[in-house]
Design goal:
- The chain is 72% helix and 8% strand.
- The protein contains 16 helices and 7 strands.
- It has a 4-stranded antiparallel beta sheet with strand order 3-2-5-6, with no helix packed on it.
- β5 and β6 form a beta hairpin.
- α11 runs antiparallel to α12 and α14 runs antiparallel to α15.
- It starts with a helix and ends in a 7-residue tail after the last strand.
- 22% of the residues are buried.
């Protein structure tokens, strides 16, 4: 900056030198003209002798010689200080002091001093432009010394205002703190620390109101409200560490109170067999205090309730399966229930009943699948025993009762004797394999139970003749012809 001023000052100095030289030239020219006019005038008015004219010339000459013999305007006195030294000093002044000195805050603090220092810098630049480096060097060093003193005093005033503002803020004296911080900001409007302090001071009334509400909430034991107010206080002023500590204390109290409430709700849910509520209570308690006995107790209650409800579900499914006469599903459900509570007598009885009915049903159905063998005495007797064993369970299982009824019908049908007429030639000896002899007959009636029979006819010199028949329970009468008429 000062280089521009230096250049401007040099330009003005050159202009002044040019004007001075022009004036000198005009004076010299005017003297010459006056000399010529005087010579002409003397020659016309008198006959002056050469000696007198010489005297006059001598009188005029001294009037001209001061101008003609004056010292040249651009001749300078030799300087000891260089331009670079002055420029370096000016730069130091600008870097260390000028920014502060030219600020608005410095002007408000001491406007006359600010004007004086600025004017003195301009004087240094002017002297430097005129080549007066010795004088400029001395002036700039004096300027630096005075500027240093002035800036130090200015800083002291600012720091005093800030210190007063901080003390008033810490004493919670809003009015005094406001006055002092505004005084500091007049000196340094952009100071970050002062601006931050001003914002803190502005928040004090709101903080006082919140602190009073927090006090009341504390007295009323309204922990939630006190915590919310404390959080707001910390948000406005993080340095209020006591409120941060109180927040932590309240958090502990609230967690304990919440935990106690959760445990109580879990116990109620357990008694009412509300599985969802009990699960929620346990999850919340476990998140807060997983190692507490209360949490472990809730876990046990939850496990037991789950087991009980699953047991009831299996029993209910078993009962439903019985109602649907589905004893296989009923057995599976009761066995699942027994796995949860093995000592439940009613479940064991249901399992036993299901197994017996299934066994009885299996036996009866086995005889029905081989109904053709029911005509065999030992098989018929076994089937009749199965019917007797299943009789008492038939009332509980319509399907079993139906199978028993079908088996009884099959036994009757399979043991009913059907008339069979044996036709032969009185030459063939007829027998029924596994039953007995018919003899050599022409037409003979016998009675046989339903089933498959093989009739054989034998005659000496002829091949044996075999005839198979199947007697169905629905048949009322049959004929079979057995003749051995093929010679060997």
């Amino acid at each position: 900056m000062f280089e521009k001023k230096l250049e401007e000052a040099a330009r003005k100095s050159r202009q002044q030198l040019f004007v001075l030289l022009l004036l000198v030239a005009i004076l010299i020219l005017g003297g010459a003209v006056a000399f010529l006019i005087t010579q002409l005038s003397l020659q016309q008015t008198s006959n002056v002798s050469g000696i007198e004219a010489e005297k006059k010339n001598i009188e005029i000459s001294p009037k001209i010689s001061p101008v003609q013999q004056s010292k040249p305007a651009d001749e300078k006195i030799k300087q000891n200080r260089t331009t670079e030294e002055v420029v370096g000093a000016l730069r130091r002044y600008e870097e260390e002091f000028e920014g502060i000195i030219q600020s608005g805050g410095f002007g408000k603090w001491n406007g006359s001093l600010q004007h004086d220092l600025i004017t003195r810098k301009d004087k240094v630049i002017t002297d430097l432009a005129n080549g007066e480096t010795d004088r400029a060097f001395e002036e700039v060093n004096n300027l630096i010394a005075d500027a240093s003193t002035a800036v130090s005093e200015y800083e002291i005033v600012f720091e005093e205002a800030m210190a007063n503002a901080i003390r008033a803020y810490e004493a919670e004296d809003v009015t005094r703190a406001t006055i002092e911080v505004e005084r500091a900001l007049e000196l340094k409007p952009d100071d970050a620390v002062a601006l931050e302090l001003q914002e803190k001071i502005k928040k004090l009334p709101q903080l006082f109101e919140l602190m009073e509400k927090a006090r009341v909430a504390n007295i009323e034991n309204n922990l939630e409200e006190e915590r919310n107010l404390s959080v707001e206080i910390i948000r406005l002023d993080p340095t209020r560490v006591l409120y941060q500590e109180r927040i932590e204390e309240i958090d502990v109290l609230l967690r304990e109170a919440r935990f106690e409430k959760i445990v109580t709700s879990g116990l109620i849910a357990s008694k009412k067999e509300q599985l969802g509520n009990l699960q929620s209570a346990y999850d919340q308690a476990n998140a807060l205090f997983p190692s507490r006995e209360e949490t472990k107790n809730l876990a046990s209650l939850l496990k037991e309730l789950k087991r009980e409800l699953r047991f009831r579900t299996f029993v209910k499914e078993g009962d439903t399966a019985i109602q649907q006469d589905n004893w296989r599903d009923a057995l599976a459900s009761y066995q699942n229930a027994s796995a949860l509570y093995p000592d439940k007598i009613e479940v064991q009885e249901a399992i036993s009943l299901s197994q017996k009915i299934l066994r009885m049903s299996g036996e009866v159905q086995g005889f029905l699948k081989n109904a053709s063998r029911l005509s065999v005495d030992n098989i018929r007797q076994a089937a009749e025993q199965a019917i007797a064993d299943a009789e008492i369970y038939s009332a509980m299982s319509p399907a079993l009762a139906n199978d028993v009824e079908r088996l009884q019908t099959e036994i009757i049908q399979r043991n009913k004797e059907i008339e069979v007429w044996v036709l032969s030639d009185k030459l063939t000896n007829v027998t029924v394999r596994g039953v007995g002899k018919v003899g050599m007959v022409e037409r003979y009636k016998i009675r046989l139970k339903p089933g498959q029979y093989t009739f054989e006819g034998r005659r000496e010199g002829f091949r044996t003749k075999s005839v198979q028949i199947t007697i169905s329970p629905e048949d009322s009468q049959l004929e079979v012809t057995v003749k051995s008429d093929e010679r060997i």
